[in-house]
Write a structure and sequence with these properties.
The protein is of the alpha+beta class. It contains two helices and four strands; from the N terminus they run αβαβββ. It folds into two domains: about 30 residues; about 70 residues. It starts with 5 loop residues before the first helix and ends in a 15-residue tail after the last strand.
Length: about 100
Amino acid sequence: MSYADIRKRAALVAGLHALADYLESNRDIPAPIYSDVYVFPPDKDCAGRRTEIDIIATQLGVAASTSGGGHYVATRSFGPVNYRAVAICDGAHHGEGDGAVR
């Protein structure tokens, strides 16, 4: 997995704006109560992915933490919209392997 390059990032941001404008202009269209936008670090070992989440957490101004499912996560909320950076390590859902919390 990788992050969006500058062109794809611009398209994503434009699409998010277009969706918001569309929902605002078409009030009969159902809208979700909340929404999550996920980003996953590029393929690295578990320690590398967790380090990447720590960097993103600093950029977001939040603390990273381990979820109930064992994933390492940094989340910043914009009202009911959440930006979530997630590192999924082998064994994370079992609390074992290189995804274990130390």
